[in-house]
Amino acid sequence: MTTLSRDSANARVLRIGADRRSVVKSMLFAGGAIAFAGYGHAPQAVAQDKTRIVQWYHQYGEAGTEEAVQGYAKQFTEDNPDIEVEVVWQLGTYGEALNAALLTDEAPDVFEQNVPTLDQVRQEQIAPLDDLYTEEVRAGFNEVSLNAATIEGKIYWVKMIDDTGCIYYHKSALEEAGVEPPESLDAVIEAATTLDTGRRKGLFVGNDGGLSALLGPLLWSAGGDYLNAENTAPAFNTERAAAAYTKLKELNDTDALLIGAPTDYWDPSAFIQQLTAMQWTGLWAMPQILAEVGAENIGVLPWPKSDDEGTPSTFWGGWGECVSGKTDKLDAAKALVKYLWIDNTEIQQDWNLGYGFHVPPRTAAAESAEPLQEPPASEVVTFLHDYGNVTAPLWTGVMGSALLDAVTNIVREGADAGEALTAAEATVQEELDRLLSE
Fold first, then answer.
1. Rounded to an integer, what distance in angstroms lies between the CA atom of residue 282 and that of residue 430?
2. Averaged over 160-164, what is the pLDDT?
3. Which of 51, 98, 199, 353 has the highest local Cβ count within 10 Å?
4. Residue 179: exposure state from Cβ atoms within 10 A (0-12, 13-18, ≥19)
5. Which of 156, 136, 165, 149 is nearest to 362 (CA)?
6. Of 91, 89, 93, 88, nearest to 34 (Cα)?
7. What is the mean pLDDT of the chain?
8. What pLDDT does 353 receive?
9. For the chain, which domains are there?
């Protein structure tokens, strides 16, 4: 799910499967002013001799996903008859609903989220799950997924799915225009301009011109990051990052970007309908693209390097399962998480591949995921492992808003990039100092 530019960023993707299922996946940004949406289901009656735990999911749009998680819960209860699970399919803006619930006595016992945060740890809203990670279990997860939820030496989730993004391009469009697949930011600008026919735009990176989707990739491809390796200071205020964000303005000024599409970059419809020759979107969209365009007709690229010293980049996102730090059913909640996302490979493969394409975080499940073994899906998985970047748990919504506002001013208002990033740096440092001093 950069792109992950705020504290909780998740992707919504719409696809219509050619042979079975429709897909929607959502990218939500925490930090907005959205009211608490409430439960998606009424509480169920539970026998007095059973422990009832409440498990939250955000509203995935893929057809069959809600039924799938209900089925997983039923299977768990059949194998653990003393525990009953109430699945809540949370409607509305999930990040804000979850944040609101975690401040009350109505917090779910088990819930998914995109990035655990230091604030949640300090407020005891999430429980450490290190006891689920035996040496063998830990060795079965990629370290990136573990590190993304490691705060002050403890692990606060079990990863459910890994998400990433890439540029899809129509091979025929590039061949007819004599354009090579772009390998640099300058080449992206040139290619988009050349491929723009008016009726068909050169590139689609979101209806905001890439401000949200490319916030991270542009930075990472210029050798920067949101925070430094020690998580003690911002790492985005560099000359190279300023140059990259200035080039985003140049790209927007070409008029070669598709703006005003019926759905945003997370949905591949604009690419499928050839409203654009190239589009930045997620691996999750590939099943629809393969079904409606054909593997032989598309190519894929990571986000290209921003300058000569840079490297390609993409985001390493997804969802992980957390346990409430204040639940009085801790053992039962942990048992559910372990059952679903550590012990049951069949469930993990179904969840990651049955409704859209995601990479299973457990290496055993990923290695046996047949749909990801052939190009172009296998190419995107390689991009994830070679160029994927994770948003640190200390990166909050306040920080993300500060950087996004700065880049918006650069692209929309023509603000000096160095001055805009310096102002954002001060806000981020102040927020970071607050976190680290508590």
1. 33
2. 95
3. 98
4. buried
5. 136
6. 93
7. 88
8. 93
9. 15-163+317-389 (3.40.190.10), 165-315 (3.40.190.10)
